[in-house]
Write a structure and sequence with these properties.
about 280 residues, alpha/beta, 4-stranded mixed beta sheet, about 55% helix, 2-enoyl-CoA Hydratase, Chain A, domain 1
Length: about 280
C-alpha cells in the first residue's frame, strides 16, 4: 500500500476522538479537540472531521455548522509527524502522487464540504489558525473571531505554498500584492488586523465567541429554507464571474423564489398583516 492508503487507514482506526460534535436544533458545533498539541491536522482528526461534515451536510435539518478549536488554538495546521512520514516515503512507487491524493481528497475534501454544500459554515475562530486550517477558516461563509485569534501564514517558512483554497481567498480579499505580502512577509495577523483587511466578519471577546456564533446560527435558522442553499452558490460563483454573468445568474435564480411559500406568505403579510407562524411554516418549500 502507498502512504495515502496508510494514512486513511490510520485515520479510520484512530481511537481517541479528535473531533467533538454537538447538535442543537438546526445548528451543529464541531470542535477540533487535541488541545495539548494545538489541534494539529493529524490523519485521525482529518478523517473524523470529514466524516462528521459529510453526515451533517447531508442532513437537511442542519442549517448551519460552526467550526471551532479547543484550548488556546483553532489549529496549528499540518501535523509535523505526518509531514515527516510523507517526506520519508517520497521514494515509494507513487512518489508525490500519494501526497497529492491526501491533499486533494482529505484536506480538499473538507474544503469542498465547506464551500460547496448548501449548509452555512460559521467559523468561531478561538485562537491561532495556520496552514490548511487557515484555508478552511478563510473559506467559511462567516468568520467570528475572538480577540485572541491569530491568522498565521506559515507556508513559506517551511518551504510550502498556499494550498487548499488559500490563494483564491486571499487574492480576492487582499488583491495580488496584499496576498503576496501576507504570505512572503509571514507576519501573524491579529483579529483586529484581520477584520480591517476583510478576512474575518466580526471580532468579539473570548467570552462572547460562543454566543456571537450562535447568533449567526439563529439568523440563518430564521431565513426561509431556500435562501442560504440558493444564495451560497450564487455568491460564490459571482466572485469568479463577469458582471454580465453574475447579473444573468441572479435573473434566472430570482423567479424561482417567487414560487416559494415563504415569499408568498411574506408578500401577503406585508399587504394584509403578517400571517401566523404556522401558516408561514406550512407554506415554506
Amino acid at each position: 500500500m502507498g502512504i495515502y492508503e496508510d494514512l486513511v487507514g490510520a485515520g479510520r482506526k484512530a481511537e481517541p476522538r479528535y473531533v467533538d460534535v454537538e447538535r442543537a436544533g438546526a445548528s451543529a458545533w464541531i470542535t477540533l479537540s487535541e488541545p495539548e498539541r494545538l489541534n494539529p491536522l493529524s490523519a485521525g482528526l482529518v478523517i473524523q472531521l470529514k466524516a462528521a461534515l459529510s453526515e451533517l451536510t447531508g442532513d437537511p435539518a442542519v442549517r448551519s455548522i460552526v467550526l471551532t478549536g479547543s484550548g488556546g488554538a483553532f489549529s496549528a495546521g499540518g501535523d509535523l509527524e505526518m509531514m515527516a512520514l510523507a517526506e520519508e516515503r517520497l521514494a515509494d512507487r507513487e512518489g508525490s502522487i500519494d501526497i497529492w491524493r491526501w491533499i486533494r481528497n482529505e484536506f480538499g475534501g473538507v474544503l469542498r464540504l465547506i464551500a460547496r454544500s448548501d449548509t452555512a459554515f460559521i467559523c468561531a475562530l478561538n485562537g491561532a489558525a495556520a496552514g490548511v486550517a487557515l484555508a478552511w477558516v478563510l473559506n467559511c461563509d462567516v468568520v467570528v473571531a475572538s480577540e485572541e485569534a491569530l491568522l498565521v501564514p506559515a507556508f513559506g517558512k517551511i518551504g510550502l505554498l498556499p494550498e487548499v483554497g488559500t490563494s483564491w481567498a486571499l487574492t480576492r480579499r487582499l488583491g495580488y500584492q496584499g496576498a503576496f505580502t501576507f504570505i512572503a512577509g509571514g507576519r501573524h495577523l491579529s483579529a483586529r488586523e484581520a477584520l480591517d483587511a476583510g478576512l474575518v466578519s466580526e471580532v468579539v471577546s473570548a467570552q462572547e465567541l460562543r454566543s456571537a456564533a450562535d447568533r449567526w446560527c439563529e439568523r440563518i435558522a430564521a431565513l426561509p429554507d431556500h435562501v442560504v442553499s440558493m444564495a451560497k452558490p450564487l455568491l460564490r460563483a459571482a466572485s469568479d464571474s463577469s458582471w454580465e454573468a453574475a447579473v444573468a445568474m441572479e435573473e434566472f435564480a430570482e423567479p424561482n423564489c417567487f414560487t416559494t411559500g415563504a415569499f408568498q406568505a411574506a408578500v401577503r403579510g406585508m399587504l394584509h398583516g403578517r400571517p401566523s407562524a404556522d401558516e408561514a411554516n406550512n407554506q415554506r418549500d
